[in-house]
Amino acid sequence: MITKRIIPCLDVRNGRVVKGVNFEGVSDVSSPVKLAEYYSKSGADELVFYDITASFEERELFTDILTEVASKIFIPLTVGGGINTIEDFDRVLKCGADKVSVNSGAIKNPSLIGEAAKKYGDQCVVISVDVKRVDGVFRVFSRGGRENTGMEAIDWIKKCVNAGAGEVVVNSIDTDGVKRGFDIEMLSEVLSAVDVPVIASGGAGGIKDFIYLFKELPTVDAGLAASIFHFGEVTIPQLKCELNNNGINVRLN
Known about the structure:
The chain is α/β, with parallel strands linked by helices.
């Protein structure tokens, strides 16, 4: 049985971890370095670091903070935000990232996925997709969830995986920060469409939501969350203990 991964997400803006609702109303949380170190020590399986305004502001990701975060943790680190070129992949990998997450950069230049997979391997390339329902259709949004690309999300995800993306992070804008559970309908469609690991993101409000996610979608690889971990509503050891008690296979410290 595949071990399910629990992944905290650090959304970083101006050097601070922030969190919003439906990608809006962002508020300050903490230092990314302190939080990363805390999560590494408390049993997180991986960590995701997003520089959430890099693409919108059309600038490079903050490498100084990233380098410090990478130096403090002992778990795999996925990094995204402002990844537009092979040089961007190279830069963040040299800062200590294990995997690179690409979103808006792949929308602007779809060949980026294949080029990166060829150079660094599929396992290094993560496609992160911000998805929202528009008139009942799953649409891909870019630039930090601000811009509707008009693309149908499931088709886009399939194209990215076929091009070489080794992992998919599905960010549901509809459920982001709302804390009413993961977007099971959306995730189910993605899981049916691809055969690489899929990470569920957006909507976790408590332990029950993770239990429901892994029970309803046994093939989903991981659950990613921010608010409930950042604000101490749920601790990772507590979550893993309950998942284990419910017959869900997790790595226990």
